[in-house]
């Protein structure tokens, strides 16, 4: 019992295999050891190997006699040593003593210890327990070191080894390779876990062959293997030409992200993150296996990270501001409207282009909050213009595809407009064709509701993407916006048929037309000739901050008055 | 006859046997098994047949089981034979009268078996 408490350190009873031909010795061993262990008996080496085969998972230790008929202890040890399943099971040889040669021979064949007859059970039990404990501690170290599916280091140990290597070699330079097995999760669903485990093991094995001189190899997540090598000029494409033929899962693909001369000031986990996102840049691209990390890409990633991390506080801290780009009526030349455009001035990064942050917000859903913010600012500005006796021209406000997922989008827009007492007719919702393509019926329904509430709608970027005439017919639109690129292309080809037909079509459908991106007098003249109603672009004005916009309106107001005066 | 008395009669050390096997009943159970144990018999037969190698292996086995059972006299005898027959122990082999030792073993082993048979028959 004392032994139970002292050695029952993992709670479970261990199983011993006693291989001994002499019945009396065997009975004695079994009887005494059964107090503390489960005992399986075998009468000679062959039987011992059979038992080992049958109970290899259970047997914690073997007590082995040397002199036995058929298959003696030496033969047993020889056969056990070549089978990896049994190799680590410890063996204590029981001998009648007297022969150092026999004992040495047993130790050389892999026996861990020996005891002499007559048995001293206190010694036997202690040796048995010590060896079991040693083996199990080693097994724990193993668990803490290796990933059992691939045989590579596990993540923690890999990080540890790499950091040790960095510390040991302060002057050396290192390269990091991260291999990302594409779509492992869906492969798992499709082919089952067992096959994917084999896939990862085989890939790890093949990569180990491709990268033989590594400082460390690790599996850092389910689908990622990482390798650190001493820096050399290498042709990575050639080096990482992984042969995927014959893998258990067909069409498995690995993308590699490589960081050369890693910045040793960065933690290895961060470096692996960089390599991983480098690999992600070529995800899904057929025929491209390796992406090399570069600073430009890094700067972009850092900025994207900054954008994601600071977007919410930016809204609260009023880092977003709304600019207005005037639209001019081609006939009167006066301001006939303005598009509200969001700008972000970040306190540390500075100005961030909407071209950069809007796609991110569209992906993570933050765009809806931002669109609401811009809508409210536009309403506020309309209210100010009214109070300042400035001409009130309609504002176009962009609504993203995701906004249309809000079931109460029209009501929200109306509530905000009403809060500032703004006439709904002064607000245009500007949407792109991509918004329409995703869920056409929902967009159509929402636009009808908006129309009923008195708002107008504009289709942006017509002609720039996959424009569909169906959208013109089915959407309850008021304004069609064309991009200047369409006009420029027509000018280049000296063929205006499509542009003119588009404008004609819009007129037939009762839509007003705006061309945006107009930069020169020549372009303005051209657009006017074609028959468009409004012009937006740098030719008249860049987007203006609130103060500038109000001054612009003021000036326009004065010139309008003088035009009217002259006209009279 | 108690196990203690049996051990005294056959030149064994009952106290040692009991300390190893912990219970008198277990000592009694195992000592009875010794009648069927072939190691001493094999040793004698191999020696009589002139097969020294087989005699050595049997002596080695007999030495182990006798020592485990604390059959002190038999363990000492079989150990002496075993060491004399072990390869490389030429000097010891030359100075040992193995024939005499085997003869003594025959006698003692016979007496031991007889005594155990009596003990078992009780």
- Give the mean pLDDT of chain A: 88
Assembly state: heterodimer
CATH class of the largest domain in chain A: Alpha Beta
Helix fraction of chain B, binned, reads: over 70%
- The portion of residues forming beta strands of chain B comes to under 5%
How many angstroms does the end-to-end distance of chain A come to? 117 Å
Low-confidence sequence ranges of chain B: none
| Cα-atom radius of gyration of chain A | 39 Å
For the termini of chain B, the CA-CA separation is: 8 Å
The CATH topology of chain B is what?
Four Helix Bundle (Hemerythrin (Met), subunit A)
- Strand content bin of chain A: 15-25%
Structural class of chain B: mainly alpha
Shape of chain A: elongated
Number of helices of chain A: 22
CATH fold node name of the largest domain in chain A:
TIM Barrel
Number of strand elements of chain A: 19
Key phrases:
heterodimer, A: 568 residues, alpha/beta, Rossmann fold, Alpha-Beta Plaits, TIM Barrel, 3 domains, 8-stranded mixed beta barrel, 5-stranded parallel beta sheet, 19 strands, disordered N terminus, B: 122 residues, mainly alpha, Four Helix Bundle (Hemerythrin (Met), subunit A), 8 helices, 0% strand
Care to describe what's here?
The complex is a heterodimer of chains A (568) and B (122). Chain A contains 22 helices and 19 strands. An eight-stranded mixed beta barrel of chain A has the order 11-12-14-15-16-17-18-19, surrounded by six helices. A five-stranded parallel β-sheet of chain A has the order 2-1-3-4-5, sandwiched between helices. Chain A has 568 residues and is of the alpha/beta class. The longest helix of chain A has 25 residues, at 121-145. In chain A, 48% of the residues lie in helices and 20% in strands. Chain A has three domains: 2-144, Response regulator (Rossmann fold), CATH 3.40.50; 155-293, Alpha-Beta Plaits (2-Layer Sandwich); 323-552, Alpha-Beta Barrel (TIM Barrel), CATH 3.20.20.450. In chain A, helix 3 (45-55) runs parallel beside helix 4, helix 8 (184-191) crosses helix 9 and helix 15 (409-419) packs parallel to helix 17 (440-452). The model of chain A is unreliable at 1-11 (pLDDT under 50). In chain B, helix 4 (39-48) packs antiparallel against helix 5 (52-68) and helix 5 (52-68) runs antiparallel to helix 6. Chain B has one domain (3-121): Four Helix Bundle (Hemerythrin (Met), subunit A). Helix content of chain B is 79%, strand content 0%. The model of chain B has no long low-confidence stretch (mean pLDDT 93). With 122 residues, chain B is an all-alpha fold. Classes of the chains: A alpha/beta (568), B mainly alpha (122). The A-B interface holds A 21-25, 27-28, 31-32, 67, 95-96, 98-99, 117-121 and B 16, 20-22, 26, 29-30, 33-34, 36-37, 39, 57, 60-61, 63-65, 67-70, 75, 79, 82-83, 86.
């Amino acid at each position: 019992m004392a032994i139970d408490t002292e050695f029952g350190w993992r709670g479970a009873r261990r199983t011993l295999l006693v291989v001994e031909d002499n019945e009396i010795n065997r009975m004695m061993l079994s009887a005494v050891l059964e107090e503390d262990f489960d005992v399986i008996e075998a009468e000679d080496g062959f039987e011992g190997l059979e038992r080992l085969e049958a109970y290899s998972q259970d047997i914690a230790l073997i007590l082995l006699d040397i002199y036995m008929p058929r298959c003696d202890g030496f033969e047993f040890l020889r056969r056990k040593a070549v089978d990896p399943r049994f190799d680590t099971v410890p063996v204590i040889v029981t001998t009648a003593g007297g022969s150092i040669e026999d004992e040495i021979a047993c130790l050389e064949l892999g026996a861990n210890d020996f005891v002499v007859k007559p048995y001293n059970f206190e010694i036997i039990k202690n040796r048995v327990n010590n060896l079991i404990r040693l083996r199990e501690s080693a097994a724990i170290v193993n668990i803490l070191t290796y990933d059992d599916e691939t045989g590579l280091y596990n993540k923690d140990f890999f990080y540890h080894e790499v950091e040790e290597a960095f510390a040991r070699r302060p002057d050396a330079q290192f390269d990091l390779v991260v291999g990302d097995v594409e779509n492992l999760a869906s492969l798992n669903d499709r082919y089952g876990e067992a096959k994917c485990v084999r896939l990862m093991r085989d890939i790890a094995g093949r990569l180990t062959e491709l990268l033989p001189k590594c400082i460390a190899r690790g599996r850092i997540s389910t689908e990622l293997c990482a390798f650190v090598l001493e820096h050399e000029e290498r042709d990575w494409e050639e080096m990482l030409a992984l042969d995927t033929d014959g893998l258990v899962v067909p069409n498995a693909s690995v993308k590699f992200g490589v960081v050369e001369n890693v910045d040793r000031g960065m933690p290895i986990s961060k470096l692996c993150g960089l390599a991983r996102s480098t690999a992600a840049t070529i995800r899904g691209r057929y025929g491209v296996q390796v992406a090399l990390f570069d600073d430009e890409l890094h700067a972009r990633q850092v900025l994207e990270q900054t954008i994601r991390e600071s977007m919410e506080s930016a809204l609260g801290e009023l880092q977003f501001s709304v600019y207005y780009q005037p639209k001019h009526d081609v006939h009167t030349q006066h301001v006939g409207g303005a598009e509200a455009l969001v700008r972000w001035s970040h306190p540390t990064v500075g100005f961030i282009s909407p071209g950069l942050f809007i796609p991110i917000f569209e992906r993570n859903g933050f765009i809806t909050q931002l669109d609401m913010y811009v809508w409210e600012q536009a309403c506020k500005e309309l209210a100010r213009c009214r109070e300042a006796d400035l001409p009130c021209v309609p504002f176009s406000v962009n609504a993203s595809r995701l906004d249309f997922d809000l079931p109460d989008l029209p009501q929200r827009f109306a509530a905000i407009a009403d809060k500032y007492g703004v006439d709904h007719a002064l607000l245009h919702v500007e949407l792109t064709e991509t918004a329409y393509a995703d869920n056409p019926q929902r967009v159509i329904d929402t636009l009808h509701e908006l129309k009923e509430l008195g708002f107008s709608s504009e289709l942006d970027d017509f002609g720039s993407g996959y424009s569909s005439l169906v959208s013109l017919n089915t959407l309850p639109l008021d304004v069609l916006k064309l991009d200047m690129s369409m006009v420029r292309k027509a000018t280049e080809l000296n063929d205006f048929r499509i542009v003119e037909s588009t404008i004609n079509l819009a007129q037939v459908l009762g839509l007003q037309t705006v061309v945006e991106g107009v930069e020169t007098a020549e372009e303005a003249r051209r657009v006017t000739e074609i028959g468009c109603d409004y012009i937006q672009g740098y030719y008249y004005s860049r987007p203006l901050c609130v103060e500038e916009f109000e001054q612009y309106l003021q000036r326009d107001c004065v010139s309008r008055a003088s035009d009217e005066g002259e006209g009279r | 006859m108690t196990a203690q008395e049996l051990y005294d009669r056959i030149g064994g050390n009952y106290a040692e046997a009991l300390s190893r096997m912990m219970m008198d009943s277990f000592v009694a159970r195992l000592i009875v098994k010794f009648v069927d144990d072939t190691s001493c018999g094999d040793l004698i037969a191999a020696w009589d047949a002139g097969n020294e190698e087989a005699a050595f292996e049997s002596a080695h086995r007999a030495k182990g089981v006798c020592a485990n059972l604390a059959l002190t006299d038999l363990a000492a005898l079989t150990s002496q034979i075993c060491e004399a027959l072990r390869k490389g122990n030429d000097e010891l082999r030359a100075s040992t009268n193995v024939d005499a030792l085997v003869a003594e073993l025959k006698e003692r082993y016979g007496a031991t078996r007889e005594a155990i048979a009596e003990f078992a028959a009780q």
